[in-house]
Amino acid sequence: MVEPQGYFFEDLAKGMSASLEKRITDDDIVRFAEVTGDTNPLHLDDDFARESIFGGRIAHGMLTASLFSAILGTRMPGPGCIYMSQSIRFRAPVRPGELAVATVTVKRIDSKKQRVEFDCSCAVGNTVVAEGEALAKVPSRAKG
Predict the structure, then answer these.
(1) How far is residue 17 CA from its own chain's centroid?
(2) Which stretches of the chain drop beneath a pLDDT of 50?
(3) Which CATH number fits the domain 9-137, given the four candidates 3.40.50.300, 3.40.50.970, 3.10.129.10, 3.40.50.450?
(4) Per residue in 66-78, is it b (16+ CB within 10 Å) or e — as a string?
(5) Class of residue 59 by CB neighbours under 10 A (exposed 0-12, middle 13-18, buried 19+)
(6) 7: which residues sit within 8 A by CB, 6+ positions away?
(7) How far is CA 17 from CA 23, 31, 54, 92, 98, in A?
(8) pTM of this structure
């Protein structure tokens, strides 16, 4: 488990980023299906998935995108932030066993509303598999 670190609103600056690497395993995919109820055979059935446009099983897109949530909640900004919204564009599949590297980067800071916009990107090797933007309300040092 990742030890939470985090930043207060006043600590953040445009261009700051944080990343998280996660090898997506068969067990991750099965557990994600159990938790969410998304039992699409593209994720769970080798024979079915082999006949698809992907030619084999793929991880749930939202499993990959959940790495953005892990970064926002534990690394940057970290504990206490309120994840308000996320847009995601899935660009390529993630296959069981692949190493996904997710990164969030501070895009814009709204001092009046104490909100921060982040660019989000996840890649496997040199291939971007998911990208988008996130919005979070970040705790202020001044407000405890």
Answers:
(1) 13
(2) 144
(3) 3.10.129.10
(4) bbbbebbbbbbbb
(5) buried
(6) 16, 76, 77, 78, 138
(7) 20, 29, 32, 23, 22
(8) 0.92
